[in-house]
Amino acid sequence: MLTPKLLTTLPQSTPRSVLADLVAGITVAMVALPLSLAIAIASGAPPATGLVTAIVAGVLISALGGSRVQIGGPTGAFIVVVHGVIAEHGFDGLVLSTLMAGVILVIAGLLRAGSLIRLVPEPVINGFTIGIAAIIALSQLPDAIGIALPEGTGAEALERLPAIWDARGTLNPASLATGAATILAIVALRRAFPRFPGLIFAVAGASAVVALFGLPVDTLGARFGALPATLPRPVIPEMSAARLVELLPSALIIAFLAGVESLLSAMVADRMVAGRHRPSAEILAQGVANIGSALMGGLPATGAIARTATNVRAGGRTPLAGIFHALTILIVMWAAAPLAGYLAMPALAGLLLVTAWNMSEPQHWHRYATTGRVSDRVLLALTLVLTVFTDLTVAIGVGVALGLALRLRRREVPPADWTPPDR
Prior knowledge:
This protein has about 425 residues and is an all-alpha fold.
C-alpha cells in the first residue's frame, strides 16, 4: 500500500514510453510555470517560491506517490490559507506550518489514513472549493483591471469589495485590455487546441505586447525584482514549543487541504487512465513533499487536478512525466529567469481568474442546485458562505461536523416505509 507507483512502472518502461513521458512533462511544465508564479504572488509570497515548490514538491510527489500520472505543486486551493498565515504569522510562520503539515501527512500515510477521504461529505468539498475560487477571483480583480487599492487593504471579502468599488476611478485601460486579452486567448487556445499549453503562450504574448509598445502596465520585475536563477539552500526553520502550538491550527488546515485535493486529483486521474492509485502512498508522498518544500523555503504543495489532466492528455502514463515536468521548470528557471521580469501582472491575474472559474466547476452548478437532498444543498451553501465571508478553518470545521452529523442521522432514521418486526 505504501510502495510508490514509480517502482511499479519503471521496470515496464520502454524508450518509447519514456519519450512520451518526456514530451508530456515538458508540456505540463509550460502550464505550471506561469501558474506557479501567479499562485505565489496571489498568496502574498515571493514569486520564486512558486517555482521552488513546483520543482521540489513536483519531484517528490511523482517519485514517491501512489498515482501513475499525478502532477504536484502549488495550487489555487492554498492561496487563501497561505495568504492568511503570512499575514498573521509572517513567511517564517508559513514555512513552519508547511513543515508541520508535512509531518502530519507522513504520519497519516503510515497509519493508512488515505481512505478517510471518503468521510468528508461531498457538499463540503464542493462548497469550500467554490468559495476558494470566489476569493481567488476577488483577490485578482484589482490587478486584472488595473485598480489601485489603498495600501493595507485586507484580503477579507467584506473589506475588499467596498475598497474595489471605491477605487473604481483608478481603473487603468491598458491593464484592463491586457487582462481581458489574456483571458480570451487562454479560452480560445484551449478550445481550438486542447492539448496545446496555451496558458504560457497567452501570458507571454500579452506581456510581449506590453513590453513592445511600452504600455503603462505593472510587470513582475517592476513589482518584485529579478527572480533567482538557482534553488535556495535548505534551511531548518526556528522552532519553539509555543510557536508549534500557535501554528498547529494552520498546519492542520494545510494538511487537510493537501490530503483532500491530492486524493481527489488521483481519483480523477484514475478515471482518465483506467488505473487505481494507492491512497496511503499518495498521502505519504504529499507529506514528504511538503517537508521538502518547507526546508527549501517553498509553499504548501499537493496534487494539481488541472496539471494532472494536462499530463494525461499530453500522453503521460508514468511518474516519470511528473519528474520531467519538475526538471523542465528547473532548467527554465536557470536559463530564462531574467525574462520572467517582463511578465505583465494583469496577464498573470487573468490566468488566475480563468483558473478560479475552472476550479469552481460551473458545469456542475445546476446539478448542485437542483438535485440531491435539501440538506446537502444547504450544507454546500453554508460552507460556501463561511469560506468567503469568515474563515476557511471555520468553514471546514462546521461543514465537516454538520455533514457527519447528517450522515449519522440518516443511518439512524428508518425509511418512511419501514415497519418494526412483529415480535
